[in-house]
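A favour, since you know our structure tokens better than I do. Would you make up a two-line entry for one protein for me to read? Write everything out right here, beneath this request.
=====
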Amino acid sequence: MSETAGSRLLPLQFAALSLAWGSSFLFMKVGLDGLSPLQIVTARMVLGAFTLVTITAVLRVSLPRSARAWGHIGVVSLLLCVLPFSLFAWAGQHISSGLSSIYNATTPLMTLLVTAAALRTERPHRGQLAGLALGLLGVLIVLAPWQLTEKPTVGSVAGQLACLAATASYGAAFVYLRRHVSPLGLPAAAVATVQVGLGAAALLVTVPFLDAQPVSLTPTVIASMVGLGAFGTGAAYIWNTNLVAGWGATAASGVTYLTPVVGVALGAVVLGEIVTWNQPVGAALVIAGIVLSRR
């Protein structure tokens, strides 16, 4: 494929990536009808790994050979895949898929927070601090602490806090990735394949002993897992890599703004989830905080 033809496909890949990551929360919610949270994560990682291995084989991408590289990527796999995916899947038992997608949009803010704490050479400037404060205000509005006295919902609060823990894990993963993996100069497709593959292998070995919940594989559950794994975890990594390479990291990160829109819309239309006023208002403040922090 020529460079011009590849450039023309970037808008389509941007739209596909927005749909893939925005629909992931719907797929997890549907998957809970027949699987436990850990079983969902295992299916997601295994199908994602199969997709990535197939792509790297077709493209003839070489995987890293050093034990050091595999060790660092293994840490990234835990922080960027296994832990946050598990937290989001667990949260899906207690909160709507649309609300989970809104919290997922806090990832850039969490990354900024972790960067400020872990990388002393990259202190945030005033604009980033203002954006972080605005985004955290948005998170507080979404969390809606004033509702706790009206209708206590321990599960809902725990689910929302789990989502924030997941995005904090994303933030730690990105910082670790930048410090320990990026300097190795490995192809992004190779890193993604090893990352998802290691996580899938670890889950296949441990989850059968940790989770004995019976599995109910209906056509809907199977379709949601294929969409979550092959579409939202496998192909999405390749699309994101192409966008960063073609448009740059800042432009490519615009997908962050569309993910909650897609997630909330699908939750409302497909699952009939109710959207309260504070959710879109808080989400708008989170997105505004991201924009301000990146100026």
Observations:
- The mean pLDDT is 87.
- The two ends are 34 Å apart (CA to CA).
- The CA atoms of residues 111 and 171 lie 4 Å apart.
- The longest helix spans residues 3-31.
